[in-house]
Amino acid sequence: MLTLNALRFQIRVKWEPLASNVRMWEMSERLNLTGCSVNELIEFVGSFGEQAYRGRQIFAAIQHRRLKNFGEMTDVPKALRERLNALATVSTLTVESRYVSEDGTRRFLMKTQDNLPVETVFIPEEHRDTICFSSQSGCPLQCTFCLTAQLGLLRSLSAGEIVEQIIIALNDVYGVGVQPPRGTNLVGMGAGEPFLNFEELMKALRVMADPQGLFIVPNRVTVSTAGVVPRILELAEIPDRPHLAISLGAPTDKQRNELMPINKKWPLDELLAACKEFEKTLKAGEKFTFEYVLLDGVNDSDEHARQLANLLNRHDMHAKVNLIPHNPADPLPYRPSPAERVTQFQSILESKGVRSFVRRPRGRDIFAACGQLAARRETNPIPSNIDPVMAQVS
Ligand code: SAH
């Protein structure tokens, strides 16, 4: 995907009368406008003499009306639409398959222009919807309990590819441009490690927060990290930021090194020291949580619960722990902890003053739950061109 700077250069080249064939060939790569802020669009259309309001119009067409091609932007003059079409795109992801769970959760398996898998999950809840987006295609971290790890890192996604996942999910569920009846929350808990794609992630969040567009503000977004310490510290400096969740997965370095090898780079004491710094910057209403995936007979004993509580208490952390029962997936050698174990684990945490909450898995039957995203195609997909209204009742 082109950056705006590269495009600026190419536009200049195109307007040069002596542009060589090679340069013209380079023009075939088009800028993805879905990742552009309103100011970037104003600058972009300004570079070929269009007024600022055209930039605003295009921004609203992409982000508010959620249109997926320039042809539909009929409030924009035809000549400008044609020029935009030659230079740019608003659609880079194609939905390959779409799976609907018994509980209403939908998983979208998409492909980038360079044929890499991207997965997005839509989770309807009583008072709001949650969309779980991916920050990377595949993932470089090798957490042993996560299926996505088996893909390895294919590449990081651009801001435009992150925003487009949300547009595609909303259009599919409610129809193109239809305002969702409930609020939309986002979680950066799909494939990938968001903090290894920090700039594009933050850019996507800024674009989505615009009131003239999707208007999903950072306060409605939670980003989860396996513990990229420098980015936790960087986020602590950013005033307008999403909520943060930290995946712990094990209470000791010895076990965390095995389950989440990122721990060898940033061990628990270093991670929790960064968390403490972050906690000091929390504002009223801001959520900061830990996640702990419970693996039967691996990290769910009474002793593990005590170690986890002691670790958090030693670092004087007040954050709540979300206990996630493991979502099984065939090649992974783990099972979810039995319900009594989860209750017992939770009561030990509570007895040591650590608040915890058990997360209900969603969309397990369609491989849409945490740690199950790995471009699986086993279940019966519903064709992606299905009438969205009918899909809602099916
Ligand atoms: N890389 C980021 C975000 C993606 S994973 C991170 O590690 O936080 C999102 C959450 O799903 C993490 O808390 C992770 O520990 C959890 N998870 C991964 N695989 C899982 C599985 N098979 N079952 C349940 N939770 C899982």
Please report the total strand number as a whole number: 14
Average pLDDT reading: 88
Relative helix content = 25-40%
Are there runs of 5+ residues with pLDDT below 50, and where? Answer: 6-28, 379-394
Coarse morphology: elongated
| Unique bound compounds | S-adenosyl-L-homocysteine
What integer value in Å does the Rg equal? 22 Å
Supply the helix-strand structural class.
alpha/beta
Biggest sheet details: 10 strands, mixed
Strand content: 15-25%
Strand-and-helix sequence, N→C? HHEHHHEEEEEEEHEHEHEHHEHEHEH
For the biggest β-sheet, the strand order reads 3-4-5-6-9-10-11-12-13-14
Query: How many helical elements?
Result: 13
Report the span from N to C terminus: 37 Å
Q: Notable features of this structure?
A:
394 residues; alpha/beta; ten-stranded mixed β-sheet; two-stranded parallel sheet; 35% helix; binds S-adenosyl-L-homocysteine
Would you kindly provide a written description of the structure presented here, covering whatever features stand out?
The protein is an alpha/beta fold and 394 residues long. The chain contains 13 helices and 14 strands. The chain has a ten-stranded mixed β-sheet, covered by helices on one side. Strands 1-2 form a two-stranded parallel sheet. It has a two-stranded antiparallel ribbon with strand order 7-8. The longest helix has 16 residues, at 159-174. It is elongated, with a radius of gyration of 22 Å. The two termini are 37 Å apart. The model is unreliable at 6-28 and 379-394 (pLDDT under 50). Bound molecules: S-adenosyl-L-homocysteine. S-adenosyl-L-homocysteine binds at residues 145-146, 189, 193, 224-226, 247, 249, 291, 293, 324, 326-327, 370-371.
